[in-house]
Design a protein that fits this description.
globular, 192 residues, 2 domains
């Protein structure tokens, strides 16, 4: 009887990983503060100074399936933002693996990894802080697709209008600045 239950559990685990969009296995991130010139010179005279290593994230496992929303909660300084940046590829991994739809992103060539990472997005807790107050929404939302070659400059306006509508905003709002939106609308601009 236990063997049958174990097989069902193994099958459900395999099925759940089949549906995982993003998986992170034993990911860690260490930041190393190297010695400056003065410290290296002091070491020549026996100071014994060493590099500082900050363990920001230590062996975290995470899986996010299609349609699932994940919120990271914890104390200030516990590594939430670092883990999020690792998930979207803004920080490299010191250890562990990151999979997108079952495929290791670190083993892909640079162009393919970049293409897959465009499908991963982080929504910031404070949408106003993540939007440039000097830029109009058309430029904020339309800059990345233009830079990544997803659209031509002539198609940018139409593309941004479509993205705003998909995020639940009126496409005609693209000439506004971030301060002209409510915080809920700013969050939608961030999603777009």
């Amino acid at each position: 009887m236990n063997q049958a239950a174990d097989q069902v559990a193994d099958t459900s685990m395999a099925q759940s990983s089949d549906f995982a969009l993003l998986e992170m296995h034993a990911v860690s991130k260490q930041f190393v503060k190297t010695l400056d010139s003065a410290a290296r010179i002091a070491n020549l005279f026996g100071a014994g100074m060493q590099q500082e290593v900050v363990h920001a994230v230590d062996e975290v496992n995470l899986g996010i399936r299609r349609g699932e929303v994940v919120g990271l909660v914890g104390e200030s300084g516990c590594g939430k933002s670092t883990l999020g940046r690792m998930a979207v590829g803004l920080h490299s991994l010191s250890a562990g693996t990151r999979l997108w739809k079952g495929q290791s992103l670190e083993q892909l060539d640079v162009a393919e990894r970049r293409k897959k990472q465009l499908a991963i997005q982080m929504i910031f807790q404070d949408p106003y802080a993540s939007l440039n107050p000097r830029m109009r929404v058309q430029d904020i939302v339309g800059e990345a697709p233009l830079v990544h070659g997803m659209v031509d400059a002539s198609q940018q306006r139409e593309y941004v209008e479509n993205l705003l509508q998909r995020a639940g905003l009126d496409g005609t709002l693209l000439r506004r600045f971030p301060h002209q939106f409510s915080s809920g609308q700013r969050a939608r601009v961030g999603i777009a």
